[in-house]
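Q: For a teaching session next week I want to show students how multiple molecules come together into a single three-dimensional assembly. I've collected the sequence lines for a complex. Could you give me the predicted structure tokens for the whole thing so I can convert them for display?
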Amino acid sequence: MSELRQSVVVDRMVKRYGRVAAVDDVTLQIDRGEFVTLLGPSGSGKTTILMAIAGFVQPTSGEILLDGRAITRQPPEHRNFGMVFQGYALFPHMTVFENVAFALRARGRPNQEVGRRVTEALDMVQLGPYAARMPRQLSGGQQQRVALARALVFTPHLLLLDEPLSALDKKLRAELQLELKALHERVGLTFLYVTHDQDEALSMSDRIAILRDGKLVQFGRPRELYERPATRFVADFLGKSNFLAGRAEGPDGATLAYSCGSLRLRQALDGPAPPPGSPVLIALRPEKIAVVADAVPDTANAVSGRIAQWSYSGTHFHLLVDTDAAGRMTATVPSWRCRIEPETGRLVHLGWDPDATVIVTDDGAPPPGAIQ
Amino acid sequence: MTATAAAGAPSGRRLVLMNERTAYWLMVAPAALLMAAFYFYPLAEVLWISVTEPKPGLDNYAQLFTSASIRRTIVTTLRICVLTTAITILLGYVVAYVLVHASPRAQRWLFLGVLVPLWISVLVRAFAWVTLLAREGLINTTLRDAGLIEQPLALIWNEFGIVIGMVHYMIPYAVLPLYANMRDIDPRTVSAARGLGGSRFYSFRRVFLPQSLPGIIGATVLVFIFSLGFFVTPAILGGGKTLMIAEYISLQILDLLRWGLGTMLASTMVLFIFVLLAALARVVDLKRLFGAG
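A: Of course. Below is the structure for the complete assembly, covering every listed component.
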């Protein structure tokens, strides 16, 4: 990665509050123009990292670099970063126009320029007609747009967004996700986005950094993270997964043979095989399971069980299947491909290919609410 | 329920209603009577005396515009009160600002520091200042022993002493409404201002200060009104040389027995305060300001 392409680097950052490490040795390199999301449950340190980049939190150790230059000790007003706060933090005593104009006035720009650029920024977020309103007279979505315009009007080096959509209802959120992404493409700025919402992260980001307990767990493209999660936590936090605890038996062609209870299963290999006899944890996405009623499927891996519970969501059937060999498993079947009529207690066979699963590191219990 | 049924039976429902209403009145009656007997009646009496003594008419009120000593007292009072209010609000603002930004632990101690003076008698505090500020007081002797002054500074028995004593007394009354207001200011708005390129001071001036304006207005009016009625502090720290209106009134009534003049001044003051409060009510929500709701 060339030095010039890097926009922001967080270098071995640690932030302690008393004895608790809110951020524990995190290193991140964010490229120019990238849309990077910091994703994690609450308390994972994602907001602390964002605040350190913005200059509101002083790291205990480590550096923040902008274009290769350390800015760790620079006050926030000298960093030239735009920021959209959670809850927006609009100035309640100023009109929409003055809110957006703030950064330009703080820089002492002449009135004429302020007027032109504020108008441009408000037009960009389709709020031109609202310039004279007070923030409290706007809806949540409009306030969010004012916050965006305010953070972008001075062409910052970087835009920081702290859960900007969390206060909005679901439909509006989906709309604004698309808008944000389009905006990112249009302005070409580096966006650093903090959220605990995995769908938001997956749909908008170029890359996602997954954080847990102040540590960076995995950093990569959304698809890479979803398809090849490195740890149990990632596999479960980003989407859902079934986990098969097995024991490696040995390589078999391009696959690894492993046992899981009385089952013999196969896992595609793209690296060295774990030594025979060592424990392996396999993550299996519910939608990668084929469900067959009458015959054992001809996939390399198969297990039988009875439907314990099922639900229908229009596009999909969600089945909870109690298997003898691998415990309770979740399968998600597209409605159009579901040839069986789900029924509690019915015997079904689950099948999947060796390359449908991944070996993950077992890094402990998944977050609450995740399936087992 | 039909009309016949309601008319036929002795209306149990209405009886209950009347009973309830009577019960409410009975419950507030002691307090209402107490207020009427010990508060409204004397107040009305004061108003009455002001237009009847020594002879019926508005002669007493005319003195507001003719008497030089009254005018001097009013000007002195207003000057001291404006000065006291300005200093109190400035210091109170600093204290409230620090309070809002302090950690919860530090906040508890700071609050104790603000509130403890409220629990100490105003008399005790005035005499405490006397021991500090007098010619042979702690400050003058220390400065003289240090060779910084030869003649003791006139820190007391003048307006300077009165203002010190009054500011000390009034600070909690400025801090509390200011604090209540500042607590409602979203600290992220100041962070946002810094992030947008505003220096510490610029962000304070353009974002924090304007949002704290209702608190400043409320505290100013409150402190000013309270200062107008000060009696003990100016009496002790002014040493009888500087007359403020409350002491002037007491002098008229207790020493000179000019009841008409004294009550006229008292009535005028009450009216003036009502006008101030009415003006304040147009700017801020009074109930909220003084802690209700």
